[in-house]
Amino acid sequence: MRSKRVRNITKLTLGYLGLIIIAIGCIYPALWVIMSSFRPGTALYSNSLIPSAFTLEHYRELFEKYPYGQWFLNTVKISVFTMIFTTIIVTLTGYVFSKFRFYGRRQLMLGLLVIGMFPGFMSMIAIYILLLQLKLLDTHLALIIVYSSGASMGFLYVKSFFDTIPNSLLEAAKIDGASHWIVFSRIMLPLSKPMLVFVALTSFSGGFVDFIFANMVLSDSSKLTLAVGLFKMVKIKFATEFTVFAAGCVLVAIPITALFIFLQRYLIVGLTAGAEKG
Amino acid sequence: MAQHRKLAMSLSVLCMGLGQMYNRQYFKGIVMLLFYLTGIYFIITVLPFGMWALTTLGEQSDHLEKVGRVYVNVRGDHSIFLLVQGIIILLASVVVVVLYTLNIRDAYVVGRLREKGVHANRIGQTLRRITTERFPQLVLSVPLLLVVFFTVMPILFMILLAFTNFSFPNFLPPAKLVDWTGFKSFQDMFNVKAWSSTFYGVTLWTLIWTVCATVTIFVSGFAVALLVQMQGIRFKAFWRTLFIIPYAIPQFISLLIMKNMFNGQFGPINQYLKYFGLSGLPWLTDPFWAKVTVIIVNMWIGFPITMLMIIGLLSTIPKDLYEASEIDGASGWQQFKAITFPSIMFAFGPLLVMSFAGNINNFNLIYLLTNGTPANANYKFAGDTDILITWLYNLTLTNGKYNFASVIGLFIFVLIASFAIWNLRRTKAFKEEDGM
């Protein structure tokens, strides 16, 4: 009995040790950037993790030398609209594929999934020309359209989620004379809140993260998104402005990281929706 | 009386909407007629231009023309614009033709109903029918149109590019014309030594990278999930939250941070190694170590998702399985082997395959972390850590070899699509469920 207890204690100690090591590995890079953003000077190199003096200079510079506030507003605007359109499109597509049977349904699903696997920016040149002809280059509308237009190809997780909601619920409502629209908005939507949060969160963060398309579409400095702005900052004056860049990163990362951490229980629901249910 | 369907159908073949009017669906008929007129106008005015654009890709490059006494530079045809316009016109024509066919079918069906003595639907009834029986088609129409013009059109464009000579410096519009060259790009890719050796080298590393990336993420995520959920560990939610951080920080930021941390000269990682008396490693500058770094960083970024998923799945394994096995005297390892691992693999299998497909195209990681470096002198426009997708990016955006890039794009697509279709056909989400 006693040897078992000793074994349990060593097991737990090792477990905690492992957790602590992993935790350090997870936090250290973030901590390093936060510390760098407060460090005086502009160099990448430092003697210690915690700077000998703290300064808010770099944060001030960010707003004075760059249109950082404007970038932030642009990004939020694009992300919010993308989130709204994407969530509507994905949810409806997933719902229809899950709960309706119609001619060509399977072929359509397979087709959408396969098209969705095409390397995204291979389409960049064609989309660039299309946007040019629609006179949408250098506008935020163009980015919102490009981000939302592919939304229906991500239906699979949403469909899997709706598959778990029993059909009998829908049939009961239909017998009571509810239209498709009422069934969807009054019964399905309230039940699918975790999935909606998951879809909304991932599509919202998409606008903060993408720089390939945004870099192609946007050129005017006051219209840039955060990702493009920061990326350009790094490309052009990386060596000399590392600490300002670090300050920029901290300000982008904080809201997104906070959202993910607050909403983590919805993430689990969304992420496991694609798994086989035994 | 018995000939309603034939007459209605012939009228609709003749002119869209006529059959509907014959069936006394005047409102529907007028809407269709208006659509038909715009459609015909569009086809007559634009389609010949579209076909000309697609077949010739333009006939006149930039040239000098004598106007009065001086020569002026006249802009020629821009082959690539013509190609895109041609595809758009062709797709729009397909939409018109599809609607036209549907119109004929509709006239026939309604005509047959009339023969049976049923009154044709009035406009209100028609609209109601669209929102009930045709609900799926109604809902899907807008997203599908968006996909056709923003995804299918670019894909067609890219596929067609592989059969042209569109490349820098000799065939770059607007100064020069682009021509159809058939399979020449494919032949060059596999027969010209410089291209083929790059292609095989990069493909090999892409496969190694994909396997390593998928396996390391899966194993590490699984291990951390088990550790967090281990019996006796307290503050599970706290640990889980800490471990989400690498996933929650926007990727382009964490990758740029990592790039600096692994910096051989100034980066903190080498600093610490030196502090402990070890010599630093050339993390990003040596071909071998750069590959190792890429895989390590990918693991750091990717393990939280797997961990979250497996934590979610672990809670779905019935507790009584463990209790029963404990009574039978099974050890922890035996429980893992016989219960935990098989259940997780069963549920996680399809997701694993999807993440495999995702890693083949993991552009951000390679591009932001190493951008393909260290450079490889034996490769054409690629470095040692370049995977197919980043090589493709270099070819298009920095070197203007669009035709070769398209060949690679097609190759990646075929690779992933065959893999994904094979996988999806086996998963439950895709098999035909019981009809409603």
TrEMBL record, chain A:
What taxonomic lineage is listed for the species of origin?
Bacteria, Bacillati, Bacillota, Bacilli, Bacillales
| Membrane topology of the entry | Multi-pass membrane protein
The secretion signal range is none
Q: Which InterPro entries match?
A: BP-dep_ABC_trans_perm (IPR050901), MetI-like (IPR000515), MetI-like_sf (IPR035906)
Query: Does this entry carry the keyword Translocase?
Result: no
Domain ABC transmembrane type-1 span(s) in chain numbering: 72-263
The entry's protein name is Sugar ABC transporter permease
Q: Where in or outside the cell is it found?
A: Cell membrane
Q: Tell me where the transmembrane regions lie.
A: 12-35, 78-97, 109-134, 140-158, 195-218, 238-263
Keywords (alphabetical) are: Cell membrane, Membrane, Transmembrane, Transmembrane helix, Transport
Q: What is its main location?
A: membrane
Automatic annotation (TrEMBL), chain B:
Identify the main location: membrane
* Pfam family, any one: BPD_transp_1
Its membrane topology is listed as:
Multi-pass membrane protein
UniProt-annotated location(s): Cell membrane
Which keywords does UniProt give here? Cell membrane, Membrane, Sugar transport, Transmembrane, Transmembrane helix, Transport
Residues spanning the membrane? 30-54, 80-102, 138-163, 204-228, 237-258, 288-317, 338-360, 402-422
Alphabetical list of Gene3D superfamilies matching this protein: MetI-like
Cell inner membrane in keyword set: no
InterPro entries associated with the record: MetI-like, MetI-like_sf
Q: ABC transmembrane type-1 domain spans which residues? A: 203-423
Q: What is this protein for, i.e. what is its function?
A: Part of the ABC transporter complex MalEFGK involved in maltose/maltodextrin import. Probably responsible for the translocation of the substrate across the membrane.
Q: Which family does it belong to?
A: Belongs to the binding-protein-dependent transport system permease family. MalFG subfamily.
| Annotated protein name in UniProt | Maltose/maltodextrin transport system permease protein
